[in-house]
Every structure is written in structure tokens, then in C-alpha cells.
Design goal:
By secondary structure, the protein is of the alpha+beta class. The chain is built from four helices and four strands. It is elongated. It has helices at 23-28, 43-48, 57-68, 75-89, and strands at residues 7-17, 30-40, 93-103, 113-121. The longest helix is centred in the last third of the chain and has 15 residues, at 75-89. It has a four-stranded antiparallel sheet.
């Protein structure tokens, strides 16, 4: 058997964070959701059943948690930081898609959230 492609998903991780253009957003904070799609060769892990042969999603979650704790004005900046740090930390990642959503954004509209999604490649 040959594995043609493999991905790891971390969906809808929730955080309270202090991002936003307005000073009040950075002071009061808000609710955010982050989702990741990690593309990597996971054939070794499928064969060995050893966490050392994959990308440990608990470690990936902790990386996202640390980056979300650093205030930024723009979601684009947050997403790019997460992408940069993940690529530096996990050599197996070939492509990473990061979606950061500000839930209930303060923009005078009834919407579930405002999101930014970026895709980074090695």
C-alpha cells in the first residue's frame, strides 16, 4: 500500500485573546477560533504506530496557544506567526493552512465571526 497524501486537522480550537485594531479589543479581549490543516508525509507513523514518526497534535496545540497569547492588531499577523513557528518547529510539515476567526467581531453587524486564512509552504 502507498499513502498518496496525508493531513492532520486541528479544528475549532477556542481561545480568549487580545487581538484587534481598537485599543479596547486589546484591553478587554475576545473569543477566537483557530483551525489548522497540516500536510505532511505520515507514512512512517502509519507503519510504526509511533508518535515520534508524526506531528504530535498536542504539541501543535500548545504552539498555537502560545502564539494566540501574544496580542496583535491584525488576524493576518497572528496567522502568519502561527505558520512561521509551526514550520520552524515541525520539519515534517510541507504545507500548513491556518484559519483564525474572531468570534462576534465588534463591527456593528450580526455575524458569527470574521476570519483570515493563510496557507504556507516549506
Amino acid at each position: 500500500m502507498t499513502i498518496a497524501a496525508s493531513k492532520i486537522y486541528l479544528d475549532d480550537m477556542r481561545f480568549c485573546a487580545y487581538h484587534g485594531v481598537m485599543e479596547q479589543e486589546r484591553r478587554v479581549g475576545g473569543e477566537y477560533s483557530v483551525s489548522l490543516t497540516v500536510e505532511a508525509d505520515l507514512a512512517d507513523a502509519a507503519r510504526t504506530d509511533d508518535v515520534a514518526d508524526t506531528i504530535n497534535y498536542a504539541e501543535l496545540y500548545e504552539l498555537v496557544k502560545r502564539e494566540m497569547a501574544i496580542p496583535s492588531k491584525l488576524l493576518e499577523h497572528v496567522a502568519a506567526r502561527i505558520g512561521q513557528r509551526a514550520m520552524e518547529t515541525f520539519e515534517r510539515i510541507t504545507t500548513l493552512t491556518i484559519k483564525v476567526t474572531k468570534l462576534n467581531p465588534p463591527m456593528g453587524a450580526d455575524c458569527k465571526g470574521a476570519s483570515v486564512e493563510i496557507k504556507v509552504k516549506r
